[in-house]
Design a protein that fits this description.
By secondary structure, the chain is an all-beta fold. It contains no helices and 29 strands. The chain has strands spanning about 1-5, 40, 50-55, 60-65, 65-70, 80, 90, 95-100, 105-110, 115-120, 130-135, 140-145, 150-155, 160-170, 175-180, 180-185, 190-195, 200-205, 210-215, 225, 230-240, 240-250, 255, 265, 270-275, 285-290, 295-300, 305-310, 315-320. The strands form seven sheets. It has a five-stranded antiparallel sheet, with no helix packed on it. The chain has a four-stranded antiparallel sheet with strand order 2-29-28-27, with no helix packed on it.
Length: about 325
């Protein structure tokens, strides 16, 4: 169902005031493990918030509140990079750098050296940034608990990034992903997805099930969403924004990852992860694996075909080689 199609800066926009919301959906509290997780499990005692695989360094970067745990050599424990402050989400450039959303700023971390720089956002010093994404042109997009989405230009020499555009029509920005230079915004309270074009203007918005929680960009050019409350995998095209597929997934689907072969969905209510083929008109289950407890975060290495399942309660990082079933 179409919710809105708005122009940034329209003073008559009825969504200028706080939009009506529902209680945001959350992952299920996973039960104790009943089966051994597939593949190998690397210890990571911290509660992971998010994870991304970096192609250049061949390492997994895991956000754990005030630090980044870098998981690489299986013979070595994860290397921990301390951050200047708490962070809520991260995105990588695939070339050895990750960007993390902080408070009034974002962090830029070099995974090889561990060096981290802080970049401030003008007139947003008190904003709790809750989501971050990187467009194909290299520009960063930040979303905040204030319900605004900030499109940023490159930082100046003084460590401050200029704001190219700011859209404040959301109750809260809970997740951001990009396809090309189009940004997709998830607002859990409105259970909606909204596109923002390359020029920074809001384009279309759609209802996202009964309680959407997570987003992931897929190499096929679509955006994936989990409707955790409604028990669905949702697949959206972004130009224009359109719901292409909706498929039932039981047991509180939450964690997501796209890959060239399959789309991956974690079931937090049963400690399982499922790989779906999206190439036909309906998602087709191809593989499923038992996971670590609380499989909240997923990441995929398309070169090696390795799936990473990261526990949200300290259960470690699960590594499943050749996860799509082809060696």
């Amino acid at each position: 169902m179409l919710l809105l199609a708005v122009c940034a800066g329209c003073s008559a926009n009825p969504l200028a005031s706080a939009p009506p919301t529902i209680a945001a959906a959350t992952p299920a509290v996973s039960p104790p493990l009943s089966r051994a997780p597939a593949g190998a499990v690397r210890p990571l005692a911290a509660r992971a918030v998010a994870a991304v695989f970096d192609d250049a360094t061949r390492q997994l970067a895991v956000l754990v509140a005030n630090s980044v745990a870098v998981v690489g050599d299986p013979q070595q424990p994860p290397r921990v990079i301390a951050l200047p402050g708490p962070a809520s989400s991260l995105v990588g450039d695939g070339h050895g750098t990750v960007y993390l959303a902080g408070r009034g700023s974002y962090y830029v971390t070099d995974l090889s050296t561990g060096h981290t720089a802080t970049v401030g956002v003008p007139r947003a010093q008190q904003v709790e940034f809750t989501a971050i994404a990187r467009r194909a042109d290299g520009k960063l997009v930040l979303g905040g608990a204030d319900g605004a989405v900030y499109l940023l230009d490159a930082p100046d020499g003084g460590g401050t990034a200029a704001v190219a555009s700011r859209n404040s029509i959301f109750a809260r920005v809970d997740a951001l992903v990009t396809q090309g230079n189009t940004t997709v915004v998830l607002d859990r309270g409105q259970t909606s997805v909204t596109t923002i074009g390359a020029d920074g203007r809001v384009e279309q918005a759609l209802r996202a099930g009964e309680g959407a929680t997570s987003l992931a960009a897929d190499p096929l050019g679509v955006v994936l969403a989990t409707d955790t409350r409604g028990g669905q995998l949702l697949v959206y095209g972004v130009d224009p924004l359109m719901l292409r597929q909706a498929y039932p997934v039981r047991d509180a689907p939450y964690g997501l990852a796209g890959s060239r072969a399959l789309a991956w969905v974690a079931q937090t209510g049963s400690n399982m992860v499922i790989g779906y083929d999206l190439s036909t008109g309906i998602p087709v289950e191809k593989v499923r694996y038992p996971t670590v407890q609380q499989p909240n975060s997923l990441a995929f290495d398309d070169t090696a075909g390795t799936l990473y399942v990261v526990s949200g309660n300290g259960g470690g990082v699960q590594v499943i080689d050749h996860a799509a079933g082809t060696p």
